Amino acid sequence: MVAKYQKEHEVAYYECDINQTMTFPAMLGVAIKVSEEQSAVLERGPEYIRSFGLTWIITTYHITVNRLPMVGEQIMVSTQAKEYNKYFCYRYFWLHDAQGNELVKIESVFALMDLETRKVSSVPDEIVAPFESEKIKRIKRYPKINSPEKGHFLPYRVRFYDIDSNQHVNNAMYFNWLLDVLGYEFLTTHQVKEITIRFDREVEYGNLVESHFETIRDENHLETLHEIRIGETTYCEAAMKWHERTKNNENN
């Protein structure tokens, strides 16, 4: 039986945006904290991982949203490290409301990076053993992310507080760059329902990145395509599906 861990969380006002809904950086921060607590309980915290000369990195998120948590709401955050193969570990997160309804599901792909070479390392079985994850041979695939072609971009400089203890930009910070370019009007009149995001390279302090995006819209479909670039090199890419906010589905 795969080990599962969960914890209650009250959504604070500083974790929410102008729509009074929880931001993705805040949501991912809470989710990762819960997974770190599970790792500590299972004696697989950062010090243990560093004893192998390794650290965890996240390569992919696939997020489906039924409803974003609201300010002041009591939610349950659950996590489960379900599967792993030679190079990747697949950890799931769920956010539920007080009635047990699923609000958000987050599928994440973790890898282990060698601290000296900064390259992906194979996964030692002893690191993941306490999580009771299923060992699989296949690499899980997520929806293809197309590049924005006719879009626009804004520049952003990487600040000191964008950097985490791994000496590169925290993955949650990318969401600020990806979403901010869409603008006030779009973000207050639309709600995201699905996100696929892939992190390709590390961004470091002082880098000037460009957040490129393209909007694709027809009668039944609204999607935005995103890339974080430095020069001609892509560091992060994402695809997001949206629906319009209305009085009836404003929080759905």
Automatic annotation (TrEMBL):
SUPFAM superfamilies: Thioesterase/thiol ester dehydrase-isomerase. One of its GO terms (molecular function) is fatty acyl-[ACP] hydrolase activity. Residues 4-131 form the Acyl-ACP thioesterase N-terminal hotdog domain. Keywords: Fatty acid biosynthesis, Fatty acid metabolism, Hydrolase, Lipid biosynthesis, Lipid metabolism, Transit peptide. Residues 148-243 form the Acyl-ACP thioesterase-like C-terminal domain. Belongs to the acyl-ACP thioesterase family. This is Acyl-ACP thioesterase. The lineage of its organism: Bacteria, Bacillati, Bacillota, Bacilli, Lactobacillales.
